[in-house]
């Protein structure tokens, strides 16, 4: 008889494969001595076992259900190199300060995955296990993607460097705004907002996630009026301008039709929503590279699974998948605005977007060294409740390679949209200038803005209107590890 | 019309000291600074004329200010910009770009519309100055 209290893999073939039920650990999904290979995919899950379920067995179950296992022993395993195909839980650690939660590290052989397919990767890693009864909750916290696998993906269609070269914008964050109200404007009125904002000094305007083709504004109307606005603004300023035309639609055929029309009209950028799905995103990324168009991704829907700490998929994992999938822009939080995001966690996201290589940084929620194998960099987009008065904080937290999107902070300006755009642009340029000149913008930011406002009335008006607006709420998703003094020193 | 290209075109015109401070920031980051000029400010005119090579081994931004003033002597009626190149792996492109000289008057751009099938319009932007031959634009 098998001893059900043991977590030891059963080595003897006859015992291991006799019909019936074994613990996942005994089936070989728990290998505490396993050293992951450089070519393994590694997933880190936060597991919350049901009361009375052993953490090691729970981790082994996750490994089993996300790779080869089913609930009972099957003899057909023996027709395969099953030791290789079994995912291996190799480490289970209690989560600091969170009773009942454990970090489970699981390694997957590269041959378990089809190259270049986020759908295939995710069908394994998050396909079945999240509803598994022995777990109260499960969260995919991070992944290590081996270079060999990274190289099977296209990566961002354009990338930060080439996007900047195409737009002829260097040395400062890009500026954008989402057209508001997000629903209800006619094409003609919508284009007016685009024209005013771009002429006033923004680089980009943006459709919102749910602007597709509704009764009040069909997509062709929007595209035609927006491109009139883009070209007028370009002539008025001598700059390259863009507007993210949202091509999200019900079928791939419709999305290709809309994207092609946008390209034919001369748009430098199109936009899609995360809700179209991973395969559709990869298809649009390929289209974008084939057609020299920048691809913006709005992360519509992500908070349904990224926000809660105990269950779902961390946004840092979504960010990694999207860099593989090949989008150029992705929203990543503002720290200071109205939407979720503490500074340390958000820094982790930004590093995943923009760095060649991410070293492990537990204080930013990055659990693994990740080499991006020269995949293009993704431009983070900061959007949601930000305004000119926060420019020193935004530049400090988010750096230079970012699109700062001031929607209400542009369109809500008391003297009009163009004035709002100018206020943001002047605040931005003044802050970058001051930083480069060696000033302590974190502490002197308000002085720098006030000085800049002396020669820019729209900025003065913006600072007066929004001076007291901030969004100080506790974050629901913060790192589990605080830096120890000798690490941070 | 004021040409808004470059990272500081919404600020008051830069003084020589401003140029020095910004160029020194580039140098301190390990970027090579160079000076370029043009009389064709079209937003997609990528290749402005080079005023010498990028100053790869220059540690002192005073030399940049000197080159800008030399360039002004010959091309003061045109646009002059300072750019900084970063040769590090994964970037190998421009890090900074700002305008340091403008023509006395900036006539701007004409938007040419060509009506096409349906309601499509083909747009072209044309610098008024660039209608004149090279060398004969701006004063």
Automatic annotation (TrEMBL), chain A:
Binds 1 Mg(2+) ion per subunit. Substrate binds at residues 128, 178, 182, 299, 331, 383. Residues 29-149 form the Ribulose bisphosphate carboxylase large subunit ferrodoxin-like N-terminal domain. The modification N6-carboxylysine is found at residue 206. Keywords: Calvin cycle, Carbon dioxide fixation, Lyase, Magnesium, Metal-binding, Monooxygenase, Oxidoreductase. It is an enzyme of class 4 (lyase). It comes from the Bacteria. Coiled coil: none annotated. Its EC number is 4.1.1.39. It catalyses: D-ribulose 1,5-bisphosphate + O2 = 2-phosphoglycolate + (2R)-3-phosphoglycerate + 2 H(+); 2 (2R)-3-phosphoglycerate + 2 H(+) = D-ribulose 1,5-bisphosphate + CO2 + H2O. SUPFAM superfamilies: RuBisCo, C-terminal domain, RuBisCO, large subunit, small (N-terminal) domain. The keyword Lyase applies. GO terms for biological process: reductive pentose-phosphate cycle. InterPro entries: RuBisCO (IPR033966), RuBisCo_large_chain_AS (IPR020878), RuBisCO_lsu_C (IPR000685), RuBisCO_lsu_C_sf (IPR036376), RuBisCO_lsu_fd_N (IPR017443), RuBisCO_lsu_N_sf (IPR036422), RuBisCO_lsuI (IPR020888). The active site is at 180 (proton acceptor), 298 (proton acceptor). Pfam families: RuBisCO_large, RuBisCO_large_N. Its cofactor is Mg(2+). PANTHER family: RIBULOSE BISPHOSPHATE CARBOXYLASE (PTHR42704), RIBULOSE BISPHOSPHATE CARBOXYLASE LARGE CHAIN (PTHR42704:SF17). The basic functional RuBisCO is composed of a large chain homodimer in a 'head-to-tail' conformation. In form I RuBisCO this homodimer is arranged in a barrel-like tetramer with the small subunits forming a tetrameric 'cap' on each end of the 'barrel'. NCBIfam families: PRK04208.1. RuBisCO catalyzes two reactions: the carboxylation of D-ribulose 1,5-bisphosphate, the primary event in carbon dioxide fixation, as well as the oxidative fragmentation of the pentose substrate. Both reactions occur simultaneously and in competition at the same active site. Belongs to the RuBisCO large chain family. Type I subfamily. This is Ribulose bisphosphate carboxylase large chain. It comes from Paracoccus sediminis. The lineage of its organism: Bacteria, Pseudomonadati, Pseudomonadota, Alphaproteobacteria, Rhodobacterales.
From TrEMBL, chain B:
GO terms for molecular function: ribulose-bisphosphate carboxylase activity. The keyword Glycoprotein does not apply. Residues 4-103 form the Ribulose bisphosphate carboxylase small subunit domain. It comes from the Bacteria. Keywords: Calvin cycle, Carbon dioxide fixation. Gene3D superfamilies: Ribulose bisphosphate carboxylase, small subunit. InterPro entries: RuBisCO_ssu (IPR024681), RuBisCO_ssu_dom (IPR000894), RuBisCO_ssu_sf (IPR036385). The keyword tRNA processing does not apply. One of its GO terms (biological process) is reductive pentose-phosphate cycle. The basic functional RuBisCO is composed of a large chain homodimer in a 'head-to-tail' conformation. In form I RuBisCO this homodimer is arranged in a barrel-like tetramer with the small subunits forming a tetrameric 'cap' on each end of the 'barrel'. Heterohexadecamer of 8 large and 8 small subunits. RuBisCO catalyzes two reactions: the carboxylation of D-ribulose 1,5-bisphosphate, the primary event in carbon dioxide fixation, as well as the oxidative fragmentation of the pentose substrate. Both reactions occur simultaneously and in competition at the same active site. Although the small subunit is not catalytic it is essential for maximal activity. Belongs to the RuBisCO small chain family. This is Ribulose bisphosphate carboxylase small subunit.
């Amino acid at each position: 008889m098998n001893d059900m209290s043991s977590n030891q893999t059963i080595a003897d073939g006859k015992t291991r494969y006799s019909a019936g039920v074994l613990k996942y650990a005994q089936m070989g999904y728990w290998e505490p001595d396993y050293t992951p290979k450089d070519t393994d995919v590694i997933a880190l899950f936060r597991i919350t076992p049901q009361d009375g379920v052993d953490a090691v067995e729970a981790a082994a179950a996750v490994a089993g259900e996300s790779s080869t296992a089913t609930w009972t022993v099957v003899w057909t395993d023996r027709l395969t190199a099953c030791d290789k195909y079994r995912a291996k839980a190799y480490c289970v650690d209690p989560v600091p300060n969170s009773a009942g939660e454990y970090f489970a590290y699981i390694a997957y052989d590269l041959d378990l995955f089809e190259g270049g397919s986020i759908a295939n990767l995710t069908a394994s890693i998050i396909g079945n296990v999240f509803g598994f009864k022995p777990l109260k909750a499960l969260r995919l916290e991070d992944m290590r993607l081996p270079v060999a696998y990274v190289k099977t993906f296209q990566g961002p269609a354009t990338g930060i460097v080439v996007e900047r070269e195409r737009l002829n914008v260097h040395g400062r964050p890009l500026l954008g705004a989402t057209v508001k109200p997000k629903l209800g404007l006619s094409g003609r009125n919508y284009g007016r907002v685009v024209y005013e904002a771009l002429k006033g000094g923004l680089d980009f305007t943006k459709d919102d996630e749910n602007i597709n083709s509704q009764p009040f504004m069909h997509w062709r109307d929007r595209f035609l009026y927006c491109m009139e606005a883009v070209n007028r603004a370009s002539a008025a300023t001598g700059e390259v301008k863009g507007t993210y035309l949202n091509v999200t639609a019900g079928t791939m055929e419709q999305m290709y039709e809309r994207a092609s029309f946008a390209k034919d009209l001369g748009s430098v950028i199109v936009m899609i929503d995360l809700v179209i799905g991973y395969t559709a995103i990869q298809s649009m990324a390929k289209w974008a590279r084939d057609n020299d168009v920048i691809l913006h991704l709005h992360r519509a829907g992500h908070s349904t699974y990224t926000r809660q700490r105990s269950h779902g998929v961390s946004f840092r994992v979504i960010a990694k998948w999207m860099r593989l999938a090949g989008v150029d822009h992705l929203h990543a939080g503002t720290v200071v605005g109205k939407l979720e995001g503490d500074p340390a966690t958000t820094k982790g996201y930004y590093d995943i977007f923009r760095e060649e290589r991410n070293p492990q940084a537990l204080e930013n929620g990055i659990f693994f060294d990740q080499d991006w194998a020269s995949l293009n960099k993704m431009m983070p987009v900061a959007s949601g409740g930000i305004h000119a008065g926060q420019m020193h904080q935004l530049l400090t937290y988010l750096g230079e390679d970012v699109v700062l999107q001031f929607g209400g902070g542009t369109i809500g300006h008391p003297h009009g949209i163009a004035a709002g755009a100018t206020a943001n642009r002047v605040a931005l340029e003044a802050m970058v200038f001051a930083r480069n000149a060696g000033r302590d913008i974190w502490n002197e930011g308000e002085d720098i803005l006030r000085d800049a406002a002396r020669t820019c009335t729209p900025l003065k008006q913006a600072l007066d209107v929004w001076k007291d607006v901030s969004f100080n709420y506790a974050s629901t998703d913060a790192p589990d590890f605080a830096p120890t003094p000798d690490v941070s020193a | 019309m004021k040409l808004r290209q470059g990272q500081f075109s919404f600020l008051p015109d830069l003084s020589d000291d401003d140029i020095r401070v910004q160029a020194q920031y580039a140098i301190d980051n390990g970027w090579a600074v160079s000076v370029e000029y043009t009389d064709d400010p079209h937003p997609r005119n990528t290749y402005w004329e080079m005023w010498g090579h990028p100053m790869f081994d220059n540690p002192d931004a005073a030399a940049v200010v000197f080159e800008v003033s030399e360039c002004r002597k010959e091309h003061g009626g045109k646009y002059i910009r300072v750019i900084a190149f970063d040769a590090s792996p994964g970037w190998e492109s421009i890090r900074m770009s700002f305008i340091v000289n403008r023509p006395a008057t900036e006539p701007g751009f004409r938007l040419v519309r060509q009506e096409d099938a349906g309601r499509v319009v083909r747009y072209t932007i044309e610098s008024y100055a660039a209608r004149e031959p090279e060398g004969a634009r701006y004063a």
